[in-house]
Design a protein that fits this description.
338 residues, Spore Coat Polysaccharide Biosynthesis Protein SpsA, Chain A, seven-stranded mixed sheet, alpha/beta, 11% strand, 12 helices
């Protein structure tokens, strides 16, 4: 790619300096039951994309063979998984191959045609300019566009987004299941690929893994777009599975950030808050049982003795929460990784 921006780059909104510094932008497309859309998706990708990786995740419709037979774009590389690894496993296979081939920024798009390729510069520029390590789509910025989204998805995404804020530590992001993402290849090399969830929890789990690296994540506004494709993610079916995994990741994140890596005032607030709340609740329960067995109401002193630790404990926990929200990573790490 030349140092000066080509007409395609200028039209796409990528400045010449960014285009020359990051001339190896790769797109990874997990392919599973998308034979109706995949060729159109490939045809719609702009010319300045360096390489395109289609990952056939043991597709029963042989989408990988379809691409090899009918797509003549020399940038397209088909990767075949020997077994079905789920969307997460397919994306990680694409990440690994793209990074090994020398890609600098890797964009993940779906093969069902939902993701607008004209938005690619929005995802790339924050990473290329050093403001982010990972970018992801957010369909909730424009309130006039949210009406296109089914109500069950609106409420489901709101619930999942709140759980993701707690478990990942990225309090300033939303729409965690959005699969339109971009990441710097140096950050990919630091991710524990063997530990990241391989199914529908992938987009959420990778946020938790990125937080353990202190990577900067930025939301990219985009419109909701739905065609004739059917989503495999049924929020009502996965929400309890997601809840258990969020609880696991929350515990791990708090342990890593506030006990293993560092011990700070927030650690004292957390430990003290939990101890006081639990102590107050136990004392209150004990006083209530004792008073009930004697057939008399608990004295005002005992009520205050049990309520005061709970109130103080909640104040400490709110202080911890404020510290955690303020600790969202702000400095991109990919320039420090060599």
């Amino acid at each position: 790619m030349p140092d000066s921006a080509s007409p395609d780059q200028v039209q796409s909104g990528i400045s010449g300096s960014i285009a020359s510094a990051y001339d190896r932008v790769a797109v990874v497309i997990p392919s599973y039951r998308v034979t109706r859309h995949i060729l159109g998706v490939l045809a719609g990708l702009p010319h300045w994309i360096w390489r395109i990786y289609v990952v056939d995740d043991r597709c029963p419709d042989n989408s990988g063979q379809l691409v090899e037979a009918q797509c003549t774009d020399p940038r397209v590389v088909v990767v075949f998984n020997e077994m079905n690894l789920g969307v997460g496993g397919a994306v990680m296979a694409g990440y690994t191959r793209a990074a090994a081939d020398g890609a600098e920024i890797i964009v993940k798009m779906d093969g069902d045609g939902q993701m607008d390729p004209s938005l690619l510069p929005r995802f790339i520029e924050p990473i290329a300019s050093g403001d982010a390590d990972y970018t992801k789509g957010n369909r909730f910025y424009d309130l006039t566009q949210i009406g296109q989204m089914p109500r069950i998805r609106i409420f489901g995404n709101a619930g999942l987004s709140f759980m993701t804020k707690i478990s990942s530590g990225y309090w300033d992001i939303f729409d965690p299941t959005n699969g339109y993402t971009a990441i710097h290849a140096r950050v990919v090399s630091k991710l524990p690929m063997d530990k990241i969830s391989r199914r529908y929890f992938f987009e959420t789990d990778i946020l938790f893994r990125l937080n353990t690296l202190r990577a900067v994540v930025v939301d990219v506004p985009m419109d909701a777009k739905y065609g004739d494709e059917e989503s495999g993610l049924e929020i009502g079916r996965v929400i309890f599975d997601f809840l258990s995994k969020h609880l696991r990741n929350t515990g791990k994140r708090i342990f890593y950030n506030y006990f293993l890596r560092d011990v700070s005032l927030a650690t004292i607030e957390l430990v003290g808050g939990v101890a006081l709340v639990l102590g107050g609740l136990v004392a209150g329960a004990w006083f209530w049982v004792e008073a009930s067995s004697m057939g008399v109401p608990a004295s005002a002193g005992r009520v205050m003795l049990s309520a005061l630790p709970v109130i103080l404990g909640l104040q400490l926990l709110l202080g911890f929460l404020a510290f955690d929200i303020a600790s969202v990573p702000r400095r991109a790490i990919h320039r420090l990784l060599r």
